[in-house]
């Protein structure tokens, strides 16, 4: 994926400020706090939104020029899907049988247990159930790239775990957003951290650890020195263990861990 100097204003606000990125990777995660511009950037990558300036190429294709190719290449799920058709869950499942990988449908239907709500009207589903149905169409439809906007935001840990592990096992090319560092740690080959519409860090997640970053939980509104970005209730902070211990003793932070360490544990 190549993103070159992409800027975008919405409602008079500069939402993306000159994002440049070139990454050849399997699973790219856009990590950032609420309102940092993740969904806007996804929409631009898909060609659903035109940038004010700059350009995007996804697997060599300009999404604004070759909409047909992008729609074949990509399937996507946005966080707040709106189904406004009067279908039942089983209608979606039956429809997808013609377009989807059968092992994937099997996973959503049986292991994830969508079959248990097969007779429910999709307009009457809970947010988590709606998200699962939307993920089923995005992940199972035959496509090279899965673009997923906060795919686990309404899911329980068990179902999120099953779906995340499946994405890794199948080796799909994935571009997804999250504001949960653990999800980046777990799934990403490559992480892009956005803060207020700017790209503040990008690279392999474990490099955060090598670069001396920690994930820090703060007390109240305290902002720790060296903060790179805030994601969810966690700051990503460049610091030392000694300084963080001092902040713990002063009661300013509640806890910390090395950023991007999980893969290190796997290695040893
Ligand atoms: N259609 C719009 N009109 C005006 N402002 C918008 C519009 N869409 C998004 N914004 C603003 O752009 C900023 C970035 O929004 P975006 O949805 O890209 O952020 P995000 O990082 O995906 O956030 P979240 O994690 O909350 O989903 C926000 O401040 C939002 O209010």
Report the top-level CATH class of the largest domain: Alpha Beta
Instruction: Label the structural class.
Output: alpha/beta
Please identify which CATH superfamily of the largest domain we are dealing with.
P-loop containing nucleotide triphosphate hydrolases
Q: Work out the number of β strands.
A: 13
Mean pLDDT comes to 90
What does the oligomeric state look like here? single chain
Please indicate the count of domains. 2
Shape: globular
Main beta sheet? 6 strands, mixed
The radius of gyration over CA amounts to 20 Å
Uncertain runs: 263-268
Task: List cofactors, ions and other ligands.
Answer: adenosine-5'-triphosphate
CATH third-tier fold name of the largest domain:
Rossmann fold
Q: What distance lies between the first and last C-alpha atoms, to the nearest angstrom?
A: 31 Å
Question: Strand content of the residues, in percent?
Answer: 25-35%
Order of helices and strands: EEEHEHEHHHEHEHEEHEEEHEH
Record the strand order, biggest sheet: 5-6-7-3-8-9
Report what the structure shows:
It is a single chain. The longest helix has 14 residues, at 127-140. The protein has helices spanning 38-45, 67-73, 89-96, 102-111, 127-140, 157-170, 181-187, 206-210, 241-249, 262-267, and strands spanning 2-10, 13-22, 27-32, 53-57, 74-77, 145-149, 173-178, 190-195, 198-203, 213-218, 227-231, 234-238, 253-258. α4 packs antiparallel against α5 (127-140). It is an alpha/beta fold. The chain folds into two domains: 2-203, P-loop containing nucleotide triphosphate hydrolases (Rossmann fold), CATH 3.40.50; 206-267, no CATH class. The chain is globular, with a radius of gyration of 20 Å. β11 and β12 form a beta hairpin. The protein is 33% helix and 29% strand. The strands form three sheets. A six-stranded mixed beta sheet has the order 5-6-7-3-8-9, with helices on both faces. A four-stranded antiparallel beta sheet has the order 11-12-10-13. A three-stranded antiparallel beta sheet has the order 2-1-4. It is built from ten helices and 13 strands. It binds adenosine-5'-triphosphate (ATP). Adenosine-5'-triphosphate is lined by residues 10-11, 13, 15, 32, 34-40, 179.
